[in-house]
Amino acid sequence: xxxxxxPALCGAALAGCALVPPSHVGGIGASIRPMDYAARLCRPVxxxxxxxxxxxxxxxxxxxxxxxxxxxxxxxxxxxxxxADALYLGEYRSTPFAASFEVSHGTHQCRGAYxxxxxxxxxxxxxxCNDGRMGWADVIRASDGRNGIGRFxxxxxxxxxxxxxxxxxxxxxxxxx
Length: 177
Description:
alpha+beta, 8-stranded antiparallel beta barrel
């Protein structure tokens, strides 16, 4: 009895110290409010600029949207990671069984990918950054299937948020940020 209990107890204690990807809560799609995007995208800005940032993101959702995403871009688009109050920007690409993203902020870069064809049991991205850090990213698509949010975790404990898609990131591209 004690022999079977002790290894289980040690395993549970050590698991708390490891960088373990989450159980995937994403699913196929969910209802994501415009304010969910704004809260993530505007987190790194100063308190003085925060209201203007939120308004810019929310305005994108209130205006008519001709042809978003552009033709030929329904499986790729802009991808942002808000990490340690820095905005990393890049692109994502996806197919029915695999996806990848690459983002950068100055000289710092992070890439993530998963592939069901190579054994990924869930849509949890393996992340590698050019500064040696590794971790995971987990995303959930909005019900339109082309935009979404997520979370990002690196092995040094750094946590971040993800926003992706042409619509929620239109405010950044429109304002040239």
